[in-house]
């Protein structure tokens, strides 16, 4: 067997392993159903004042560089807050390294995080619009990925409507700001952000071209 054949076989094995992992997650999501937020939404609203400048009073951030928290899966929000705390505790070596959010999350208790997640997850995300010129390419990439490049379909983990999964802690990505989505894909690709489960998002984003990131980030805004 030539080196080229060996390389192709190794790449195929890696792709098959990725497909098996995604299918396993998908099956797990289907079997587990939807979990409910454990926190107190009213208590979360009462302590959300410091979050409004960037994320808006109802979780719909006015600036596209900040994520919308409204309607986001509570389990995902709690995970991110814990990851910000972990990054603060480890000097950014673990968790999610973001100077602003590390400071904001530093003093939150478990109860605080659950309450904030309950509040924001109960709000309604205001959708964006998908530009007509990216609909076809965005739909193809979102639903089918790119087998030749080893890019897994977004829908495999985030669902056909982009709602993610409460039980698997996968985020809702539909209706999100395009600028924020694109920035996160770039961070996953470079490993500037590395709090994804088993490095799944890095593996996908690393194989995406800048044009792919542009298309998918714009496509998600109107996916609802």
TrEMBL record:
Residues covered by the Cytochrome c domain: 39-124, 133-224
Gene Ontology molecular function terms on file: electron transfer activity; heme binding; iron ion binding
Positions contributing to heme c 1 binding: 51, 54-55, 101
Protein localization: Periplasm
Gene Ontology cellular-component annotations: periplasmic space
Predominant cellular place of this UniProt entry's protein: periplasm
InterPro entries in alphabetical order: Cyt_c-like_dom (IPR009056), Cyt_c-like_dom_sf (IPR036909), Cytochrome_c4-like (IPR024167), Cytochrome_c_Oxidase_Subunit (IPR050597)
Binding positions for heme c 2 per the UniProt entry: 154, 157-158, 201
Annotated keywords: Electron transport, Heme, Iron, Metal-binding, Periplasm, Signal, Transport
Signal peptide from the UniProt entry: 1-37
Lineage top rank: taxon: Bacteria
Mod. after translation: Binds 2 heme c groups covalently per subunit.
PANTHER family cross-referenced by the UniProt entry: CBB3-TYPE CYTOCHROME C OXIDASE SUBUNIT FIXP, CYTOCHROME C4
Record protein name field: Cytochrome c4
High-level lineage: Bacteria, Pseudomonadati, Pseudomonadota, Gammaproteobacteria, Alteromonadales
């Amino acid at each position: 067997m030539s080196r080229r054949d060996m390389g192709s076989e190794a790449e195929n094995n890696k792709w098959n392993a990725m497909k098996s992992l995604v299918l396993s997650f998908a099956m797990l999501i289907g079997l587990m159903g939807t979990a409910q937020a454990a926190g107190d939404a009213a208590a979360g609203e009462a302590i959300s004042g410091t979050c409004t400048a960037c994320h808006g009073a109802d979780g719909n951030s006015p600036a596209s560089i900040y994520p919308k928290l409204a309607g986001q899966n509570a389990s995902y929000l709690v995970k991110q807050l814990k990851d910000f705390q972990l990054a603060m505790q480890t000097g950014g070596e673990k968790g999610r390294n973001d100077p602003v959010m590390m400071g904001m999350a530093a003093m939150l208790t478990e109860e605080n995080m659950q309450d904030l997640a309950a509040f924001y997850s109960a709000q309604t995300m205001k959708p964006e619009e998908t530009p007509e010129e990216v609909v076809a390419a965005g739909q193809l990439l979102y639903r089918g990925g790119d087998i030749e490049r080893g890019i897994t379909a977004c829908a495999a983990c985030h669902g056909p409507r982009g709602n993610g999964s409460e039980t698997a802690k996968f985020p809702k990505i539909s209706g999100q700001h395009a600028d924020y989505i694109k920035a996160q894909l770039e961070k996953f690709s470079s490993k500037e952000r590395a709090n994804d489960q088993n490095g799944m998002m890095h593996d996908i984003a690393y194989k995406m071209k800048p044009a792919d990131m542009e298309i998918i980030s714009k496509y998600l805004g109107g996916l609802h």
